[in-house]
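User: Fold this; tokens only.

Assistant: Input:
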Amino acid sequence: MNRFSALRACSGATRPGRRRPWACCPRQLDTGVLTRLGCVLVTLASLACSKASDPPFSTTPTSPAVVVTPNYTLTLTASPRCAMVTDWASHQPLPFPDSARVRRYDTQFTGSSLSVISANGTAGPFDARTSGNTFTAVVPPSADDLTRRDASAVWVEALRTQAPSCAGGDYWVDDFGDDVGPDGRHTEHFEMCGTWHATIEDPPRIAGTIDGAFVYYKGTGPNFSTDLYCRASDHQFSLTKR
């Protein structure tokens, strides 16, 4: 099974800028180097690839052929607890790189959806909405789905030989860095997923927290020399009107 057929078997679609193809299932650890584990693990795949279930948000993939006109600047900031994270490749504590701890993107917020422009293309639209002075968005897997997954005995057992990721949702991945691998992609990668909450005090600037995961990995898929996964309830985001 090649990486694209594996992804289709897991999530049903491939979309530029949304999923990294080799992240269909948690990545297998092999002598300090992370490699993709095929989706033949049916039980784990059905768990990791479940759709988010937080009503009324929908995580059904939508058509990427939508013209996106940025009207906000999105800033993502990792939780302070991400300052030092255990590397799933070397099993040593490593600092979450500054380049991945704070990320900025041109973004379109329509009042009901959020689309993010990254080096990989446009990610979204994700469900995002305001109700009164409350803003909520979900980049799947949601916080509830991550919590359920983390508590699963199947998932805990899988982590003995594999590395966690945002796999199983319609998250986005962003390639960056100075180096380019043989596949033509930059060799540093950032992904995030989770549930966003904010109380709107200044309408031109929406700022709040993300209960979810920030992930940094380095190398050329399906092999990675560094893999840092930070699950926290106090990642930060801000949407500033352009």
